[in-house]
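ok so heres the complex, four chains, lmk if somethin looks off
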Amino acid sequence: MGVLTSARRDQRERRVTAVADNARRVPAYRQVADDLRARIVSGEYPSGSLIPSERELVEEFGISRPTVRNALDLLRNEGVILVEHGRGAFVRPTPTVHRLARNRLSRKAREDNQGTFLGDAATGGWTPSVSVRVRFESADERIAGLLAIAPGTEVCVRDRLMRADGIPVQLATSWLPRDITRDSVLEQMDTGPGGAYARIEEMGHRLTMFEELVGSRMPTSDELVSLQLAAGIPVLTVTRVAIAEGGRPVEVNDMVLSSERYQLHYMLSAE
Amino acid sequence: MGVLTSARRDQRERRVTAVADNARRVPAYRQVADDLRARIVSGEYPSGSLIPSERELVEEFGISRPTVRNALDLLRNEGVILVEHGRGAFVRPTPTVHRLARNRLSRKAREDNQGTFLGDAATGGWTPSVSVRVRFESADERIAGLLAIAPGTEVCVRDRLMRADGIPVQLATSWLPRDITRDSVLEQMDTGPGGAYARIEEMGHRLTMFEELVGSRMPTSDELVSLQLAAGIPVLTVTRVAIAEGGRPVEVNDMVLSSERYQLHYMLSAE
DNA sequence: TAGTGGTCTAGACCACAGC
DNA sequence: CTGTGGTCTAGACCACTAT
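and the predicted structre for the whole thing:
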């Protein structure tokens, strides 16, 4: 009972009306994608439900399976459906969006909480957990530039994977000049109450400012796995530079977050 | 001269070594995509150059055209190549990233410049141009919530398309309560020197704070056209709320930017 | 007119999930 | 075992670009 039998008729008729037909024909796979998307937003296929199988759609629309797959690939890349091999295609539930307040970086907020991530957890009411790996390397061009040190200088690198209620939500990598971290708890996995920034200040580097550079891109395949992202969902990237009294950058922190789960919330004075 | 003849042989052999072969076979289309991607990063196919045609790749790899297309679709969705009907597929040049400084919202900066967008142009050294459309509508749930007004209240809506040196770089839509804009230049296309914020302040609504909510997503098909985006490139979304003395929200501004061309730069006090 | 990508067919066989 | 998606073939014809 192909919805597209009419489309195919249009295609034949087009030869006769080639000049008048300025509006391009909508290809079959796109019509099917549009149709299925409409059924999803209308609620006919509720969130999380199984949509018809590829072979069923072949029957319903009267088109070949590659064309059906082409349509489903579109919806997959849009993040509308989630396909599982051997099981079927499901309407992808959209997670709730959390706001990450960036003014949490103020000294007051830092003293009140154990760290930015733990502070967000306290506000959001979820259980945080963090895996940490510490290593040392030579600063590359980019990190050296951001830390205002010579390329090749030894830096302490802290890789972290943050989880909320067990599910991975954020990747973060920090670089700190080794002359600041040497023989301190900053080279340990647990930096203690108040987080790394509290330790840095205790060591005499009073923080005056944070710079954050926010961008977005598609995830790498590694990020796709470790953050358990769906296809078609970009990540937010935040590069934060912590600047101490005297203007010295003391930490660079690269963060990667699912754009589907997080928004960044900045409060800026108009003065 | 198929690179993949070996892959096909592997496939046959897999039947015999099914248990030992834990590592899944890499499908042909993925091998081809990986191969082409490697040629691009190695510089064998320089930025902007034409890559071999689909039929040529069919010959080279000894696979069918749909499989070649599958590989190219991957690279297209990654934003690695740019395909033009009738011409061929090109290595996509990556535009330079501009930083948009958000502290440009301070009163000093607003007085110095003609508006945030024009101010960025002055700093960046490019020629700005803006198309504006003004209309009126009833506030929907979201806008009403952000402006702290009743849903259905009449608002003034300003749609803008900003260009840098003629190429579209940013979409913006502002909503303002009609009781603020009525009979003012805010309902005209050109809001004059200092931009809309200067006019709002002149009318007695001294601005105290901006909230910015930053997210990211794949572009809609409309945005893809108007911002001339390549496939596989997400957009950054910024929702800004301008808050006047007394805590009243006076403007909501939704911005959409190419993530490939822009990063947002925030400066936050550590105090 | 020749070469390019865009769409589509009608199959085939494989791998995975679940009963 | 059955039904699901994953991969692949060998074509066909159309639309667009450039000459």
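quick notes: Chain A is about 30% helix and 30% strand. thats all i got rn
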